[in-house]
Predict the 3D structure of the following.
Amino acid sequence: QLLALRGLINLHLPLSETPEAYWEEPWLEDLYNKISRELDIASRIRTLNRKLDYAHQVVEVLRTELSDRHHTRLELIIIFLISVEVLFEVVHFFV
């Protein structure tokens, strides 16, 4: 979802450059550029991209943590199963 949002902002929304519809009328292009500068659109897009980068990093950390927990759990299950097998062999040897 983060990548989809970033794609929408950076690729599909004409916020960082003048839309083609305004190219035909120079006064509209100038107006669009003035409004973009006044609203500080480029800075806002950079800030939003930084926030999306941070959110992506948080997601990756959480994904890694969950993966590590899962691997640890599987390793403990394997150790337990090996221990049970060794116990059965010891009991079988003495009985």
Remarks:
- The mean pLDDT is 86.
- Residues 41-94 form the longest helix (54 residues).
- The chain is about 85% helix and 0% strand.
- The radius of gyration is 29 Å.
